[in-house]
Amino acid sequence: MGKDKLRLGFNGHFEEKEVEIAAGDPTPWDPSQTFSILGARTPRLDARAKATGAARYSIDVRLPGMLYARILRSHDPATVVRSLDLTAARKMPGIRAVLAIAKPGDALRFAGQEVAAVAADTPERALDAISAIRVEYGARPFVVEIDKARADGAPLVFEGKVETKTSAGDAPGAKKALPRKGNVQGPRASDKGNVAEGFGKADAVVEGTYSTQVQTHSALETHGVVARWEGDELTVWASTQGIFSVREELSQTLGVPLSKVNVITEYMGGGFGAKFGAGVEGVTAAKLAKEAGAPVKLFLDRKEEHLAVGNRPSSVQWVKAGATKDGKLTALQLIVHGGGGTNGGTGTSGPLKNVYACDNVKTEEFDVFTNSGPSAAFRAPGHPQGAFALEATMDELAARIGMDPLEFRLKNDPSEVRREEFRIGAEKIGWAGRDARRRVPDNPALRRGVGMGAAIWYNTGGTGPKATVTIHRDGSAEVVHGVQDLGTGARTMVGIVAAEELGLPLEKIAVRIGDTRMPYGPGSGGSTTTPSTAPTIRAAAWQAKKKVAASVASAWGVPEEAVVASAAGFSMNGDAGKRLSWKEACGRLPEEGVSATASRAENHPDAWKRFTAGAQFADVEVDVETGLVRVRKVVAVHDCGLVVNALTAESQVHGGVIQGISYALYENRILDRATGRMVNPNVEQYKIVGAMDVPEIDVTFLPVWDAVNNTHSVGIGEPATVPTAAAVANAVSHAIGARIRSLPITPESVLAALDGKARVAAMPGRETREGGRA
Amino acid sequence: MKTFTLLPVRSLLEGGRESAKPGSILKAGGVDLLDRMKEGLETPDRVVSIAHVPGHDGIEVGPPARIGALATLARLDSHAELRRVYPALADAAGGAATPQIRNMATLGGNLAQRPRCWYFRQAEFDCTKKGGAQCFALNGENRFHAIFDTDVCCCIHPSATAVALLAYAARVDTVGTRGKRSISIEDFFVAPREDPTRENQLAAGEVIEAVVLPAPAPGSRSVYKKLKEKESFDWPLVETAVSVSVSRGTIQDARVVLGSVSPVPRRARGAEKILAGARPSAELIARAAEAAVAGATPLSQNAHKVRLARVMVERALREILA
């Protein structure tokens, strides 16, 4: 342990702080430092393997004798299983295992819930066999619309206590017991200051009701595993964001010791928050594999993916806000009802509570249960919804007091990082000239608009992760760390940090990740992967390098502290004769080389702390005759701490912006109100933004040196998508001069807003809502 | 998907004969058929493939033009001469689906494909089009459904090329076990009132052989326009094809067609009447566009489509009468 004086902050805002450094942890990098590879644009280590198809994703795993499993699901939103007869299915050709998932008497609460499963020698035979399973259902009344679910006398989704089939990592914080009346659970509440007094002090008050749709995760690789037993040991290739949380769930559910469960994720095709646990499909595959005595592959199809394994809840948010005429927020209030199906639906209050400074803030959040698939954590849970309502409210309030929306935000934003980001972004998008550009020369049907939104995020990673770095006698190095790469570039990030610390080219480093037999790696959620993993890798590399230095010191017969390590190798202060290149030094190592296993140190309590900040601006074009919206450009300015790899960090922001545009304009899970079934469980009618609809995306990172960890790294996955829909919606409102209060923004909602309709007509998959005060 | 036998045939006639046998179905590009088979909407024992029958993918522009039924949408799009004479057809073909699909999809298959209604496309909805008792869209989720002829089945016809072919007064030539015939494209389609379980009058054993387009009248112009929510891989909200011939400042003849608004592609005869014999003006175009959507019976969630159709007709007319 020791205290180091560090220069921390960003851009022109640096200050000196004393930070306590844990034993075994290197001092955080200094802003005066030059880097060999850190922060450069480094192509992914696996780029070639992915581009050529050589990369083996979990869904690509094929084992000798492997069987294929399918799950039988209920078609109706609320039923009781009366009887289940598996005998016919068992007798079908090629069927090797059959498993009941539900049992007689079980209530099924959404269309798509699991009933039974089979494993067969071909996928086609498995599919045939599930249709031979005889199930008798007793129909129960159901409700799939959130406003109807809230009404007195609505069919109850849960007659008794709330039971949800969640997987580890889902819906964080949703477990606490809350009061429940009918289908409405809550509130989760917060109350700061006194909002009544705050509204009393306001010169202007606005209120509005904002609604958002259900978005499904729609990762390219679906949920699933390949499960193989060898004796009493289970190995599972999973498409997961957390190999260790999958191991935990399998161990607990199957009663197998943790030591006998191995989970592997070599390559992964996206998760966005819905892939932390083994899930029903993972546990089912393991059970079928046991029964059949053969490996089993169970991956869901696209329809199952939409129905049963997670979504971003819908929301109906009532927001009220007040400000003085000189632009100071006096009160903010939120009441939200969130529809997460059979799971929680809230968590939208984050932006309202944390982005802008306000003395009086009150929030109440209610889950509304419906007979539809359960929600799961989804890239910045609650935040895109919350940001949409908050940022629209900020624009309305600014208009009410006659202040420029940018100036209004700058006045109320306590984050000096984000104020800087707002200024950078405003410059890049051409904020100042935005009114003059609203009309498009030569096309009277078009309007252009610019809008903005703020991003906030909270996590800085934490303890738990471990990594082993081995330096070999030939000077090459190997990093072993049980993190998984979701497609974010984590594998490359691990290599870069080791390369930087060791002073080696990336080609000299082997990165081994994605296996629970390796030192513990973090689950990839909450934007914590890089800030958890990077400092761990650096610490292990630093310790291993110290061991090389120690061996040099002992060869020279000098104390360890006398040996100076640099990119060139090792030397001794004041002794020009004592000099060894890295290669020479490593050549003197014993046959086994040197290894160090380091643990992630605690976050430094006296670091330069802040909430992660971002600002985005959208430039859109709206056809006022058809209501069609095209996003022309998005400017994204983000705090990503100290960027490890500019190329993949930028790629993360691209992904967040693209997903945000898709949420703003297209994606919408539509349930048939009469039958409770999803009508668009595909990627044809569940519309996801395509390449032709992706605008120019201008990404800027504002480097922040915070010393929260030894690499100053911060996750970017979630903040990148928090404000996009908000910025797009505000840009559309600016373009057409009418407020947009619901997502997705469609031609009909734009036309309705233009028509000045207070009430937007009922839209498929969405709830009716008040248009709010204009 | 049920196990089936793939039977490649050497002629369209053989294709017709084989596909007329019980448990058999005809396949050209297979784009739509495969979707339906995966969902269990079709469960054939034998799939009779005409995909590799030679001699039916030619494009003779003429005019009159004759296009083999097995010509792909990609070829219609990239055929410069076809595009020059029949631009609305080239644009309709080139704007459909995705490049991958256009490389496989044939003109005949595009005309004979089945609607994309999300109730029809899911096995668990036993809808009118499947021979069931109700149209789920009528009072259900009908944002993308029909705004005309919504009384029996309110699906919309998915063929973009049909919209253009209607504007060109094309004919569909067929070959089959009962001989050859030539059907006007307008008579080719079957409205739900007549039979909701089919969209065209192809008989068992009958196969589309070619599409014939008459020579455009002198001074005629044509255009195809559509409105999609997304530019990448999306179906139109509304589409229109318009063909007019103008002589000495007067519109001689006009064909105005609306797509994605009704169970079969629809000629807007009200608009055509207003245009015929008139001199082009902004006021005339507005009146014609208004007439094109007169009598619409939109559903609970798609009233906006009436407006969109009107706007698209107006834009199409403006473009070719400017």
List the helices and strands and how they pair.
The complex is a heterodimer of chains A (774) and B (322).
Chain A lengths: L1 E9 L2 E9 L25 H6 L14 E7 L5 E7 L1 H4 L4 E6 L6 E2 L5 E7 L2 H8 L3 E6 L6 H5 L29 E2 L2 E9 L2 H7 L2 E9 L2 E2 L7 E7 L2 E6 L4 H12 L6 E4 L14 H14 L3 E4 L2 H7 L2 E2 L1 E10 L5 E11 L10 H5 L6 E8 L14 H18 L4 H8 L3 H14 L16 E12 L8 E6 L5 E5 L8 H13 L6 E5 L15 H28 L6 E4 L2 E4 L2 E7 H6 L6 E6 L12 E12 L5 E10 L7 H20 L30 E6 L2 E2 L18 H13 L10 H8 L20
Parallel strand pairs in A: 3-16, 14-15, 19-20, 23-24, 30-31
Antiparallel strand pairs in A: 1-2, 1-32, 3-7, 4-6, 4-8, 5-7, 9-10, 10-20, 11-18, 12-17, 13-14, 13-16, 18-19, 21-29, 22-23, 22-28, 25-26, 26-27, 29-30
Helix pairs in contact in A: 6-7, 10-17, 13-14, 16-17
Chain B lengths: L4 E4 L3 H8 L4 E4 L3 H8 L7 E4 L9 E2 L4 E4 L4 H6 L1 H6 L1 H8 L4 H6 L2 H6 L47 H8 L3 E6 L2 E6 H4 L17 E8 L6 E8 L10 E10 L2 E10 L6 E2 L1 H7 L6 H11 L11 H18 L1
Parallel strand pairs in B: 1-3, 2-3
Antiparallel strand pairs in B: 4-5, 5-8, 6-7, 6-8, 9-10, 10-11, 11-12
Helix pairs in contact in B: 5-8, 10-11, 11-12
What do you see in this structure?
The complex is a heterodimer of chains A (774) and B (322). Chain A is α+β, with helices and mostly antiparallel strands. Among the domains of chain A are: 65-140, Aldehyde oxidase/xanthine dehydrogenase, a/b hammerhead (Aldehyde Oxidoreductase, domain 3, Alpha-Beta Complex), CATH 3.90.1170; 461-599, Aldehyde Oxidoreductase, domain 4, CATH 3.30.365.10. Helix content of chain A is 25%, strand content 27%. In chain A, a hairpin with a 5-residue loop joins strand 29 and strand 30. In chain A, helix 6 (243-254) packs across helix 7 (279-292), helix 13 packs parallel to helix 14 and helix 16 (646-665) crosses helix 17 (724-736). Chain A starts with a strand and ends in a 20-residue tail after the last helix. The model of chain A is unreliable at 167-174 and 757-774 (pLDDT under 50). With 322 residues, chain B is an alpha+beta fold. In chain B, 30% of the residues lie in helices and 21% in strands. The longest helix of chain B has 18 residues, at 304-321. Chain B is built from 12 helices and 12 strands. Chain B has helices at 12-19, 31-38, 73-78, 80-85, 87-94, 99-104, 107-112, 160-167, 185-188, 269-275, 282-292, 304-321, and strands at 5-8, 24-27, 46-49, 59-60, 65-68, 171-176, 179-184, 206-213, 220-227, 238-247, 250-259, 266-267. Among the domains of chain B are: 1-53, Uridine Diphospho-n-acetylenolpyruvylglucosamine Reductase, domain 2 (2-Layer Sandwich); 220-321, Enolase-like, domain 1, CATH 3.30.390. The mean pLDDT of chain B is 97. In chain B, helix 11 (282-292) packs antiparallel against helix 12. Classes of the chains: A alpha+beta (774), B alpha+beta (322). The interface between A and B is large, with 38 and 33 residues.
